[in-house]
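Aim 2, interim progress. The first record below pairs a target sequence with its C-alpha cells.
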Amino acid sequence: MTPEALVRAGTRWAAVPFVPEIRLLTAAEPFGLWDHSQREDPPFWAFPWAGGQALARYVLDHPGTVHGRRVLDVASGSGLVAIAAAKAGATSVIAGDVDPNAAAAIAINARANDAAAVTARVFDMAADDASPAEVVLVADVFYQRELAGLALRFLRRAAGHGADVLVADPGRAFLPAADLSPLTSYQVPVLSVLEDTTVKTVTVYSLA
C-alpha cells in the first residue's frame, strides 16, 4: 500500500475542533490504522493533537508571528500547524516529519485546505537543521525523554541561528519548562480515544 493510500484508508474529512477553519483526514481510532502502517510509532498524522490545535489557533489569531516569513513546522504530523501558518500569510512553510506516511498526509491535507505555501518532506531532527527558517513551530513533542532532549537541542540550534521558536504543549512529562516562556493557554477539545479526558489545557511558549 502506498503512503497516500494508507493515509486515506480508515480516515475521513473532519473539521478540527479548536480550529474549524481547517479540515483534516482524521481517523476514528488509532489501532487499526497503526496495524496497517507497519511502523513502530502510532499514526500521529491521523489526528489533531492538543498541542497542534493550540499552536494552529495561536498562529491564526496572531498572523504577524509568521506573515511574510519562512516557516518550519517540525514533527508536523497531519500538517495542521503548517496549514495554519500558510493561511496566516507565511511566505513558505516546510512541514517536516520523520514518518513518510505523515509527509503524504500533510500533502493531501494542505491541498484540501488551499495551503499552496506548504511543502511536505521527511525531516529528522537528529540529522536535519532548521535553515533557512525564520520561524520554527513545534507542538506536543515532549512526551518521551529521548525525543524531548533531541527536540530541545534542535530548537536551541534554530534559535541560535536567529529563528523565532514557538512551542505548544499540554503538560507532557518531559516539557523543558525552564527553557520556555509562556505566551498564552487554551482549553482544547481532544479525542477521548487519544487522551483520558475530553479537554486539555495547552500552553503556547516561546523559547527563552
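The second target in this work package is listed in the same format:
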Amino acid sequence: MQVHVLSTNMEMALAAATKAAQWLKGAIARKGHATFVAATGASQFEFLHALTSTSGIDWSSTTMFHLDEYIGLSETHPASFRRYLKERLIDRVHPGTVHLIQGDAPDPQIECQRLNRLIASHQVDVAFVGIGENGHLAFNDPPADFEVNDPYIIVELDEACWRQQLGEGWFASLDDVPHHAIHAISMSIKQIMGSQAIVCTVPDRRKAQAVHDCFTGQVTPLHPASILRQHEHADIFLDADAASLLKQ
C-alpha cells in the first residue's frame, strides 16, 4: 500500500485519476481489455470527473462492475448509485459492458447470485473505492466480514453510515429513507481485495478520523478499510484535510 497526500481535493483527484488511467491503459495494452469497479458518493465527484476527462483510455474495451447499491431503491431515486454512475461515468465515457446492481430487484438474494455468476468470469484489474466516515469499505460497515467468499453480499447499514448519507444530501431526512433501504447489496471485502490494483480516494476533514483509525494501529474488521494495508497495489490518495490526523 502507498499513501499519497495532496494539498487540495482537486490535486488529489487528478493524481488518483492519473494512477487509475495507468492501470486501465496497462490492462488494455496487455490483454486488449480492462475490468474495473466503480464507487460512488461525494468523495468520488472530483475523481470521476478527472478520470472521465482523461484522454487515451479506450473505454469501449472495458467492463464495469458496480460496488454497492441500496436495496429497494429505484434507479430514478436521487440516492440511487445506478443513477449516480450513469450521470457521472457511464453516460460520459460509455464503457463497453456495464453490470449494475439492481437494488430494486424482486429478490436481493437472486440478484446477488446473478452478479456473482457474472463477476466469476472476470479478473478485476482495478477497483476505485473510497472510505466511509465509519471506516467502511463499500457498504461493509464495522465490524466487517473479512472472510466471506461470495463476491456480492447483503449487508445491514449502521447508524454512522446513515448519518453520512444524510449529511451528503442523498436523503432529505430519516423519514425519507425507505425502510428496506437500511440494507444494501455490497461487494465483499475479499472480492475488493482480489482486484489487481486498488485506487482509493478520500477527501475532506470529516474522513480524517476514519483515515487515522484505518491506517494506524491494527488491521481489524472494526476499521474495515484497514484491510487495504495488506494489498500490494493499493494507492491511497488523501487531501490535506483527510490526512490531518496522521503523523507526518
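The CA atoms of residues 24 and 30 lie 10 Å apart. This observation will shape the mutagenesis plan for the next reporting period.
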